[in-house]
Amino acid sequence: MSWVNDLDALASAGVIDFDAPAFIRGTPPRYYGNPALQTIPSNLPQIQSQPVNDEFKSSSTPVYNPFWKKALFTGIAAAGVIFGASKLKCVKNLLKKPFNGIQNLINKFKPKKP
């Protein structure tokens, strides 16, 4: 007996309820359920052909993300960068210096009250 006959015997006995050899080989099933062993055809259909080379076949339609996904990702990324930058001391000092310089410049040109 071969492995095909063994699996067919399991199907006729009710252990499995499908054509396991056809499933393993990737061919159309010869029967469904639990037929009698004598009624099961002995030959399997031809196995599907396997590719000769490994190759990547890309789909013909590219994926396009909608605008709302792009905008949402941009907003989240910008918020993350701003939040991360706010936690760095060197960035805080850089931001304080220009504002202090601008205030000093404004105070310098502001007319003094008598």
How would you describe what is shown here?
The chain is rod-shaped, with a radius of gyration of 37 Å. It has 4 helices and no strands. It has helices at residues 3-13, 20-25, 67-86, 89-109. It has 114 residues and is an all-alpha fold.
Q: Residue ranges: pLDDT <50 for 5 or more in a row?
A: none
Helical percentage:
40-55%
Radius of gyration: 37 Å
Termini Cα gap: 116 Å
Helix-strand sequence: HHHH
Total number of strands = 0
Structural class: mainly alpha
Number of H/I helices: 4
Short description:
51% of the residues lie in helices and 0% in strands. It has 114 residues and is mainly α.
Please describe the topology of this protein.
Layout: H1 3-13, H2 20-25, H3 67-86, H4 89-109
List keywords for this structure.
4 helices, 114 residues, mainly alpha, rod-shaped, 0% strand
